[in-house]
TrEMBL record:
SUPFAM superfamilies cross-referenced by the UniProt entry: Homeodomain-like (SSF46689)
Residue ranges of domain HTH araC/xylS-type in the record: 15-113
Name this polypeptide is given: Unannotated protein
Pfam family, one: HTH_18
InterPro entries: Homeodomain-like_sf, HTH_AraC, HTH_AraC-typ_CS, Tscrpt_reg_AraC-type_HTH
PROSITE patterns named among the record's database cross-references: HTH_ARAC_FAMILY_1 (PS00041), HTH_ARAC_FAMILY_2 (PS01124)
Species per Swiss-Prot/TrEMBL record: freshwater metagenome
């Protein structure tokens, strides 16, 4: 069983690093760099992500990037290549592969499906109000 201070420290580390990732997800973030920024060790951050977040740093970073990409696909007219670059990927093919793994569809298909369902939501709203 872990000591309460250990749990508290790891929770704080996870929270601090998660906040950095949420703001700087497009940057080339590494576990070593983040450990240095939060005055911790690489191993402590690995433990924090495993125990508090039930994930790895790499999985967390990818999840944040893919979720931001999904928002951009639906809400912007940027190309898939531009979105890939905006969320930190140099290679659109690697981005597409990661996106498909996370969301179950290619970025362009996800965009089409998202806009299609959004157009139905917009069509239903005025009809309901008029009735």
């Amino acid at each position: 069983m872990q000591r309460p201070t250990t749990i508290s420290l790891r929770t704080e580390l996870y929270s601090e690093v998660s906040s950095i990732v949420e703001l700087e997800y497009a940057s080339e973030l590494t576990l070593d760099e983040l450990a240095q920024r939060v005055a911790s060790s690489r191993r402590q951050l690995q433990r924090a992500f495993a125990e508090v977040g039930n994930t790895t740093f790499r999985q967390y970073l990818t999840r944040v990037r893919m979720d931001r990409a999904a928002e951009m696909l639906i809400r912007s007219d940027l190309t898939v290549r531009e979105i890939a670059h905006n969320v930190g990927y140099r290679q659109p093919a690697q981005f597409a592969k990661a996106f498909r793994r996370r969301h179950g569809a290619a970025p362009s298909d996800y965009r089409s499906a998202g806009r299609f369902s959004a157009s139905f939501e917009n069509v239903d709203a005025p009809v309901a109000a008029a009735a």
